[in-house]
């Protein structure tokens, strides 16, 4: 009789232990699932108001040069913790996007300015002065710091005795480059040249 009671008790303990283990495993699995969902499948979660959810790798790749240092460090910490996405305040995200747009536009102008300068030089070497002038004129219309184009236009108009256009270019160059101290010497020379032309 004692043996039967022992078997019955052992069975109850075994069944109870199995149930408790199953409950524990289910909780653990749900917890891990929620954690992974937060880390790796955040696209399906609604972002709280006032924040922009971004993929960390794509965000860094696209905006690296424009991300504030503090935010860059914070994002990289999240990345090392296994997060693939991060929420960024909308106003900061917009500011970063605007800075990148300005940066891209600046680089675009530099590239285009360089291309047109090279094209103008090519025309000059081949004696195609009219095409060179048109190219340099186009370059300064872009609004970039095309000092080479300004200088060459002054020279080419002077050689053609086209003093009205030389004066126009000198005045514009003074207006554009006087804001940058790196061109102080050039600006002084242009001012002196302008005085000489106007005294004719």
What does this protein structure show overall?
- This protein has 200 residues and is mainly alpha-helical.
- The chain has 8 helices and 2 strands; from the N terminus they run αβααβααααα.
- It has helices at residues 2-40, 56-63, 69-80, 90-125, 129-141, 147-159, 163-177, 184-198; strands at residues 51-55, 85-89.
- A two-stranded antiparallel sheet has the order 1-2.
- Residues 5-10 and 30-46 have low confidence and may be disordered.
CATH architecture of the domain at 98-198: Alpha Horseshoe
Measured distance between first and last alpha carbons: 133 Å
Strand content: 5-15%
What coarse outline follows from CA principal-axis ratios?
A: elongated
Which range best describes the helical content: under 10%, 10-25%, 25-40%, 40-55%, 55-70% or over 70%? over 70%
CATH fourth-tier homologous superfamily of the domain at 98-198: Tetratricopeptide repeat domain
**Strand order within the widest sheet?**
1-2
Give the key terms.
single chain; 200 residues; mainly alpha; Serine Threonine Protein Phosphatase 5, Tetratricopeptide repeat; 8 helices; 2 strands; elongated
Structure summary:
By secondary structure, the chain is mainly alpha-helical. The protein has eight helices and two strands, in the order H-E-H-H-E-H-H-H-H-H. It has a domain at 98-198: Tetratricopeptide repeat domain (Serine Threonine Protein Phosphatase 5, Tetratricopeptide repeat).
């Amino acid at each position: 009789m004692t043996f039967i009671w022992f078997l019955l008790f052992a069975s109850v303990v075994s069944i109870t232990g199995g149930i408790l283990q199953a409950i524990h495993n289910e909780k653990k699995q749900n917890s891990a699932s929620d954690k992974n969902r937060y880390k790796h499948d955040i696209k399906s979660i609604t972002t709280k108001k006032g924040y922009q959810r971004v993929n960390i790798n794509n965000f860094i790749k696209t905006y690296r040069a424009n991300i504030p240092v503090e935010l860059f460090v914070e994002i990289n910490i999240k990345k090392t913790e296994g997060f693939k996405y991060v929420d960024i305040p909308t106003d900061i995200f917009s500011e970063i996007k605007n800075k990148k747009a300005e940066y891209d536009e600046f680089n675009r102008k530099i590239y285009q300015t360089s291309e047109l300068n090279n094209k103008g030089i090519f025309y000059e070497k081949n004696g195609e002065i009219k095409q060179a002038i048109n190219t340099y004129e186009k370059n300064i219309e872009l609004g970039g710091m095309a000092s080479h184009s300004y200088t060459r236009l002054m020279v080419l108009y002077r050689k053609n005795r086209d003093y009205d256009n030389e004066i126009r270019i000198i005045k514009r160059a003074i207006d554009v480059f006087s804001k940058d101290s790196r061109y102080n010497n050039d600006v002084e020379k242009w001012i002196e040249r302008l005085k000489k032309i106007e005294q004719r």
